[in-house]
TrEMBL record:
Cited SUPFAM superfamilies: Periplasmic binding protein-like II, Winged helix' DNA-binding domain
Stated family: Belongs to the LysR transcriptional regulatory family.
The protein's name: Probable hydrogen peroxide-inducible genes activator
Keywords from the UniProt entry: Activator, DNA-binding, Transcription, Transcription regulation
Organism lineage string: Bacteria, Bacillati, Actinomycetota, Actinomycetes, Kitasatosporales
Organism encoding this protein: Streptomyces xiamenensis
A single GO molecular function term of this UniProt record: DNA binding
One term under GO cellular component: protein-DNA complex
Keyword Signal part of the UniProt annotation: no
Amino acid sequence: MAEHLHFREAAAAIGMSQPALSGAVAALEETLDITLLERTTRKVLLSPAGERLAVRARSVLETVRELVEEAEAARAPFTGALRLGVIPTCAPYLLPTVLRLIREEFPDLEPRVHEERTAELLEGLTRGRLDALLLAVPLGHPGVTELPLYDEDFALVLPHGHPLAGRRDIPRAALRDLDLILLDEGHCLRDQALEICQEAGREAGATMAAGAAGLSTLVQLVAGGLGVTLLPRTALKVETARSEELATGFFADPAPTRRIALVMRTGTARAEEFETLARALRRALRPLPVRISRP
């Protein structure tokens, strides 16, 4: 309730009926002899006492989660659920390899994939909703440990016939004047692309031609002649095959890059398990157009 402040949404999140949850909260209030929620006809708010107890409850639940995790890890590694979070700019291109690896080398693991943006994934990891993440680093986020998997270059996706199409020696300075199309705000790939552009000398706040919610839409906007975009190499083959109106161009060395890592909670009981998984992923990902990280 403290997270949703809505009985129906909270009940759905924990798999209870709304009346059952309402009754449980009322029973807890009666047991504690305190009002936890302030109810109106339109909304639910935490009382001052409810806010204090919610902080303590989160701490208790985190301790219980760690205890269960410790017991599961001690019982048998690589068994049970693996709640894996993946950013949208990795999921379609990495998951076939990742899931095949898990099926072949860790058959007793039960992967449950969650595709979300970086901020939501980190919140899910730190709160215990997720076990590990596949995303772009560095994060600069406390309480998490990054296990680098690979680095990959960015390439330009352009309309067919663009002057830069087919080139393999494009200078970064070319980004200063191109009509760029980027993902919408909230995607880490957008932030990375903006940083690359600024390093190339593009003015901060320079107008972008358009925006998109996903990479597939992004490249279709390019195919429609609205501009050009930056794409990581792992996405290039899949996305550019969608239209004959698309072309590619590659940067002169050193090309702009991003790093992808397996991320876990610092101190997790499954640390050794995830380190083993990271080593296996580095082997499995070698066929992709990436540079595998050293352990």
